[in-house]
Each structure stands twice: as structure tokens, then as C-alpha cells.
Amino acid sequence: MRTIIALIWLVLFVIAAIPAMIYMVIVHKKDPWKAEKTARAWISCFFRVLVKIAGTDITVKGLENVPADQAVVYIGNHRSYFDIILTYTLCKNTTCYIAKADLRNIPLFGLWGDMMMCLFFDQSDMKASVKMILDGIARLKQGISIFIFPEGKRNKEPGLLPLNEFKDGSFKLASKTGCPVIPVALKKIDDIWEAHSPWLKKTSVTLCYGPPVYFNDLEDEQKKHPGEHFRQVITSMLEQM
Q: Residue 113: which CATH number?
């Protein structure tokens, strides 16, 4: 029943989103910030209702570790599409996500992604990757936070651990700007859907936000291989949860 209701909610949202998107495209030409704010409100509403339909009980720990007055770089382990859905509804300030470039070709997703200031990356295109980093730096300087899943793709292995390799390139935005890195450990998120796809299941999940880490405070070896350092940080957080 939850899955059927979620599908109905998705269809209704898509139908309503078409005229809304036309409106936002028009507004974006005159006031990009207003259009982006409207898009974020729409997506946040959709995500919140979807979480309620799924019957997800969320326990949040350490949210006080996230500074409310400056942009941050969130990094988290990645096991579910709901990782984005849940974390988006909890972000204290304006936050954009980094997504694969091929997702931009999905009908409506690309337009919504642009309106929400998503950063799309293509590992096969070095020029595009450099531009994405520069755009990310600019957004952080504007006070817009960025959420990254350094594993690059969902970890589909059974069991919460071990985590996949964290890509060192994921931390260039933090090293170039000095913005604090907020480690985010997500537990049992895949129990909402992926563990028993295609059905949604009522479950309890936990999100834990670690203390901010400043790149300049890391040791030289940790700066050379930040991916492995933060992989160990989040692994430790998951083990303690």
C-alpha cells in the first residue's frame, strides 16, 4: 500500500510540476534566486511527504555540529536513493548536491537539478570536471553548502561496512575554500526501499552529523589522501551508532 500511495504522489507531483517548471523558467530569466528558492521549496515538500508515506522514523544526532551561519561541505556514505531525500530535508541552509552528468538527461530531472543548483560531473570530461569544481567553489563562497557522496555510487554490498573507496577529488572543494567538512553517517537508509525493492517498508533510520573538520587542520599525509581519512572517520561513526 505504501508503494502504491508513493507512486500516486509521484505522478501527482510530476503533473503539477510541469506548469510550475514553466513558471520557474520564466521567472529564472528575471530573478534566478527566486526561481531557485521556489524549486527548492517544491522539492523539499515532495521529499517530506514521500518520507511520511514511506513511514520512516528518523533519528538525527549531532545536527548541532553543523554551522548555521556559513557554507559547509557535507560528505556521507551512500547506500540508497533516500540518502538524498532524507538529508535534503534536514539541511540547515541552502544546499546543492553533486550528481552524475547522465542524470541530467532524465526528463524534468535536469531542469529541476539546474533550478536547485545541482552540480553535474562527468569523469570522462576533464574540462567539464574543472568547470564543476570552479562552479562549486563559487557557490560555497556565496554561502551555498554542497553535499557529496565520495563513494561516487551507491554501495550495494550486503552489510553496512566496509565502505567503498572515497575519491580524493571529492575534497577539492573543501581544500580550495577552507569550508568546514561535515561527516554524515547514514544507517539503515537502504531498508526503506533497496533492501526489498520494489516495495517501500516502514523502518527506523539514523543520521549522525560529526563535528566540523577543517582541511587546513589535517596532517600532511591526511591532506594527500583525504578520501581514506574521511572514510575512516565515517566508518568509526557507523561503528559507534
A: 3.40.1130.10
